Amino acid sequence: MSTNLEERGGRKPVNVVYKSKLFLGILLILCSGGGARMNGQDGSDLRVVVSMVQLNVAVTDKNGEYITGLRPEDFVITEDGIAEKIATFAEGNAPARNVGGVEAPAVAAGQRIDPNDPTFASLITGANVFVLFDTSNYMYRDFVFAQDAIAEFVRELGSADKIAFYSYSRDLLRAASLTSDRSTVLKGVRSTVAGDSAALYNALLLTVKDASQYTGRRFVVVFSNGPDNASVVPPEDVAEIAQSNGISVYMISTQEARLEPISTAVFERMTAATGGKAYFAKSWKDERRAFSSIRDDLAHLYNVSYYPKQNPNTGWRAITVKLVGEKGKKYHVRTRNGYRLQPTRFAPPTKAAVSEPPPAGSN
User: Fold this and answer.
1) What is the pLDDT along the chain (363 residues), one digit of tens a residue?
2) Per DSSP, which regions of 206-263 are E strands?
3) I need a surface site. Which of 164, 255, 263, 299 has the fewest CB within 10 A?
4) Which whole-number Å values give the CA distances from 338 to 106, 198, 316, 321, 350, in the listed order?
């Protein structure tokens, strides 16, 4: 039984990397963080990036209502127990702003990434939303109703948001690449047809990897009608990759999946770990309400980022976000709970590379 696990290209994010105190390039990643060095067996070095950690944070009261108007000083962020200082802050789709003069660590002779730069703000404004639609044989019933719910979700997303539309059964179909053109996405939605077995976690892994190639706020919204019966990828691995890349996963499933305890538990764990939510719809009306809830969630998230302080941990790093004072007692905070540093392999630099470091932003 073959499974399509090919990775497709996309825009690459930028990282800040060092080698023997030599600046090799400035590339910005908004999803992981760190600063560590490991040796590869082939003589090359493995580097992890020094970067900004970006969090999508929902704050709600006991009734699930969103709390708006919070300020940076209302949040306390720790990474492995180390208190972090907020660098940028935004509410909803508002542009991110620099907080308290926090700057990126120096990366080369006076070069810094300025969060007040308009180019930087454009990376945060709006959201990149990847919709993944189950077209397996689980979806034969009410297929058209599911298409209608997705189409309505696409049409009503914020004007600043970009959308990609994928579908899956045994294989993944990239029906519409990330775009602000709603008509292109809607055409992809309407062109879907029901297929065979469901390889949800294979498809979700490829979707998350596609999303990781972009900067800014990234979300994956999955519509699934049942359990996975064809994947070779464990869901725990997919969840960790999403966490480490700062991608929130939302999952909408019908009551069919709710009746399967393993799928229910997996959906709930995966979404909670990434800062998203899981919904189980009993009817097509519930499906529409679930999509509306996700749309509302995206519009009310706080976007908070920080530059990690020195930390010797090169593995999994735990993130905790709390509110200060009475707010911490009254309100609930939802965000991803950590990330794993992502190593990158670099060969020893040539003489030319030593004498002429590449310009900022080069790849």
Assistant:
1) 433 333 333 443 333 333 332 222 323 333 333 444 445 555 545 555 547 899 999 999 999 999 999 999 999 999 999 999 999 999 998 888 888 666 655 443 333 444 555 444 555 568 999 999 999 887 767 788 899 999 999 999 988 899 999 999 999 999 999 999 999 999 999 999 888 899 999 999 999 999 999 988 999 999 998 788 899 999 999 999 999 999 999 999 876 666 677 888 899 999 999 999 999 888 888 999 999 999 999 999 999 999 999 999 999 999 999 999 999 999 999 999 999 987 654 444 444 333 333 333 333
2) 218-224, 247-254
3) 255
4) 25, 29, 7, 10, 36
Establish if 361 belongs to a structural domain.
no
Boundary-marking domain end, from 255, 274, 300: 300
With H, G, I as helix, E, B as strand and everything else as coil, classify residue 109: coil
**Among the listed residues 206, 65, 219, 227, the one whose alpha carbon sits nearest the alpha carbon of residue 136:** 227
Residue 5 inside a domain? The answer is: no
Distance of CA 38 to the CA centre of its chain: 26
Q: Which two tokens stand for residue 12?
A: 């690459």
* Residues 292 and 167 placed together within one structural domain of the fold: yes
Domain that includes residue 83, residue range:
16-117+304-355
pTM (global) more than 0.85: no
E strands, 113-264, are 128-134, 162-168, 172-179, 218-224, 247-254
Strand order of the sheet with strand 162-168? 172-179, 162-168, 128-134, 218-224, 247-254, 278-281
> How do strand 332-334 and strand 53-60 relate by DSSP bridges?
antiparallel
List 48's β-bridge partners, or say none: 36, 343
Residue keyed to tokens 């602000």? 180
Number of domains in the chain: 2
Calpha distance 13→6 (Å, rounded): 20
Give the end of a domain, one of 268, 283, 300.
300
Unique residue bearing structure tokens 């030319």: 352
Instruction: Please check whether residues 53 and 164 belong to one and the same domain.
Output: no
Considering the domain architecture, whether residues 260 and 178 belong to the same structural domain is answered as yes
* Statement to judge: residues 221 and 274 lie in one domain: yes
User: Do 199 and 86 share a domain, yes or no?
Assistant: no
